[in-house]
Amino acid sequence: MIRFDNVTKIYDQKTRPALDSISLEIDRGEFVFLVGASGSGKSTFLRLVLKEDHATGGIVYVAGQNVANISSWRVPKLRRGIGVVFQDFRLLPNKTVFANVAFAMQVIGKSRGIIRETVPEVLKTVGLEGKENRRPHELSGGEQQRVAIARAVVNKPGILLADEPTGNLDPTTSLGIMKVLDKINRNGTTVVMATHDDDIVNEMRKRVIELRNGVVLRDEAKALYTSMMPIIPAADSGSGRSAGAHK
Amino acid sequence: MRLAFILGEIGGGLRRNVSMVVSVILVTFVSLTFVGTAGMLQMQINQMKGYWYDKVQVAVFLCVDTSTSPSCASGPATDEQKKNIETLLDSAAVKPYVTSWAYESQADALKHFKEQFANSPIVDSVSADQLPASFRVNMVNPEKYQIINETFSATPGVETVIDQRQLLEKLFSVMNIASLVAVGIAGLMIICAILLIATTIRLSAFSRRRETGIMRLVGASKAVIQLPFVLEGVIAAVIGAVLASGTVWAVAKFFIQDYLADQYKDTAFISANQVLILTPGLLVLGILLAGISSLLTLRKYLKV
């Protein structure tokens, strides 16, 4: 579903690359945690998938397409196939819950009938039945994030990108959000979630891709937040790079 | 659905930005009024040209006692000299250019003079022998005045040859300058309007960056994201253009048609309805102004 082939992203020639020649593949229906410290390249990864930025080197494939070959007027079509959730929810404060979710359908020209039918269904999936007419400020953080998730998946995208969706939430609420994401994943949507939340990663036991300074440090199935593998102090290039970063 | 949605967005944008929208309306209104005024002046010039050029004549003035020109050295024009001019006017060299000619005697000249200056005390001090007799020549093509001038200006008994059209040209050149000034002011105001529209759109895009950000993420097309902004500018400009057309029409109706035409009955003035031809032009200009400046602004501030 998402494939990176030796992808490099350099924002500024003078500093190190945000992503340094990384290669990885995420299959349809997978649930992947993207972990790593701030500045490790998680957000850059997500931006490249969305074609918000273009890679400096290498090729990014999304749903089988090389995104570099997607012309600018067809970028909206690519983004319709990708839902995005953020740490800060990004809801429209003057619209109700229903209108916030419906907005995502209105702007791509869905008919009123389909919107009336789909939005309540999605709100039920994320556990917000009965709150259609509330405004964002009347909701708790967890509920606001559920609205954001509902908006991200209402157009049935194949991929859901979540950039620290639980970053502003307490552990219990976060767990609720994870249940929703898991449910969406089990319905067939590929989920890529960038996070710092070790409890959640340890709880879920999904594939973990750890980035550090723009390179893939590890990529393990059913993994924990911290690596279980001992770091071998050998003179190979991988450990040399990470040792350099500690200075 | 999509149309209703876009209309809703436009309504919201206009409401949120009322003061800026009003200023865009006013600036386009003023600038297009100047454009319309320039257009109206040009129409008036054409109208007067059409009206006067049919009537203007070339006047061949004959010598009188007080004439000073060298061809009048022998004193007032004699009957023989008059006969000579008449023959020349009917000769093969001149006849093809002339539709008709008439002789205006000194007595006729005095009569016309008295009519023209009926309210002036100068009338009493003028006698017939002070006014020159003349041949009034109507030309097939008034532009060919030079032929009459060459033929008659050196003829004995002719004091001078005057093309009345030249007198009108002075008037027209004044009107042309006025319309150029109007165009100049219009140009400045249009630059103002373009910059103001650009600023308005930028503010509007900034105050709605949340919405547009979400639209981008869920894959709204460029048209759906940008159209509300472009149409906001266009709607404001169209309102300005309609006001400008109305003002130009009102000036034509109440000032030119009802006042000037009434005061100067022998002059051809444009009618208010003729001025309505300018309306589509002003509308198109307003739409172009707003459309182009908003597209340029959005390219910079609202990337998709």
Automatic annotation (TrEMBL), chain A:
PROSITE patterns in alphabetical order: ABC_TRANSPORTER_1, ABC_TRANSPORTER_2
Domain of life: Bacteria
Start and end residues of each ABC transporter domain: 2-238
Family: Belongs to the ABC transporter superfamily.
Coiled coil, from the record: none
Signal peptide per UniProt: none
GO biological process annotation, one example: cell division
Lipid bilayer topology: Peripheral membrane protein
GO cellular component: plasma membrane
Designated name of the protein: Cell division ATP-binding protein FtsE
Subcellular location: Cell membrane
NCBIfam families: FtsE
Organism annotation: Arthrobacter terrae
Alphabetized GO MF terms: ATP binding; ATP hydrolysis activity; transmembrane transporter activity
Annotated Gene3D superfamilies: P-loop containing nucleotide triphosphate hydrolases
Summary of the function given for this chain in its UniProt record: Part of the ABC transporter FtsEX involved in cellular division. Has ATPase activity.
SMART domains per record: AAA
Principal place of residence: membrane
Quaternary context: Homodimer. Forms a membrane-associated complex with FtsX.
Keyword set, alphabetical order: ATP-binding, Cell cycle, Cell division, Cell membrane, Membrane, Nucleotide-binding
TrEMBL record, chain B:
Pfam families: FtsX (PF02687), FtsX_ECD (PF18075)
UniProt KW Repeat keyword: no
Signal sequence residues: none
Topology relative to the membrane: Multi-pass membrane protein
Transmembrane parts of this sequence: 21-45, 177-203, 224-256, 276-298
GO CC annotations on file: plasma membrane
Ranges for domain ABC3 transporter permease C-terminal: 185-303
InterPro entries tied to this protein: ABC3_permease_C (IPR003838), FtsX (IPR004513), FtsX_actino (IPR047929), FtsX_ECD (IPR040690)
Family assignment from sequence similarity: Belongs to the ABC-4 integral membrane protein family. FtsX subfamily.
Self-association state and partner proteins as the record states: Forms a membrane-associated complex with FtsE.
Function: Part of the ABC transporter FtsEX involved in cellular division.
Protein name (database record): Cell division protein FtsX
Organism of derivation: Arthrobacter terrae
